[in-house]
Amino acid sequence: MEPLPEVTDPRVIDGRKIAQGIEGEVKKEVEKFISEHGIRPALATILVGEHPPSKLYVKLKHWACKRVGILSEDHKFPQETRQDEIIGLIDTLNRRPEIHGILVQLPLPKHIDERDVMMRIAPEKDVDGFSPESMGKMLIGREGFVPCTPKGIVRALSEFNIDLQGKEVVVVGHSNVVGKPAAIMLLNRNATVKICHVFTKDLKSHTKEADILIVATGVRGLIKADMVKEGAIVFDVGITWLDERVYGDVDFDDVLSKVKLISPVPGGVGPMTIAILMEHTLQAAKIQRS
After folding, report:
1. Best label site of 11, 80, 203, 282, fewest CB within 10 Å?
2. 245 lies in which domain range?
3. Catalytic residue list
4. Contact between 87 and 120 (Cβ < 8 Å)
5. Which pLDDT score, from 0 to 100, does residue 3 have?
């Protein structure tokens, strides 16, 4: 991928800058943790298949580990790997005290049940926040490990001093990775939240009411200017790869003139997601140490 241009428009959320701030704090805390306990936090990643975006995302996560001083292990499997082999590795990693976080890169091949795999990860090592225990705690407002992308969005809103209480939020997409947890986390902060999805009728009528619009569908250019409220804050979480380029769910150039803030693709929520993962891995090491 080509280097991203510098962000100069104040309406554009520079996810790289926010991520650098998070990673800087994590690096300091990692050094402190090592000096106090003689233990270096460690993350194990599991990748199944040859999906090019997934391979890139895993590589970016390992680069981030190196930047902040976290050890990382990379476990790769061919596309045809059986589910019991993946679960067997997770069981082994759960038992290894020197591994503090386990991340399974999604999506998995269709013959593997993602839910069964995620449920196998020990809650204290669930740095992606997808286990039933992590999700359940989030639902009752006791957020521990939560999915990293929604947490990155919440962090970005905090960076811009956006008070969520009473805000009208529309989330487009109801996946377990982004849509559902984003809605719950914003409800926990007293926003008024509506979730739309592929079966929602007249999507435009809903998105036009949003003070904050979060879009995570994987449909290139789904959101146009006439679907966005004047002065809205827009988070584009969608990723579409086409001819070695990355596109978001929001028609960025069309929408930019109407918004108060907008996250670009790439360079928006992606870097923040990875930075939050680093934060969670350190947190997991602290929990397991105590």
Report:
1. 80
2. 148-270
3. 61, 105, 128
4. yes
5. 65
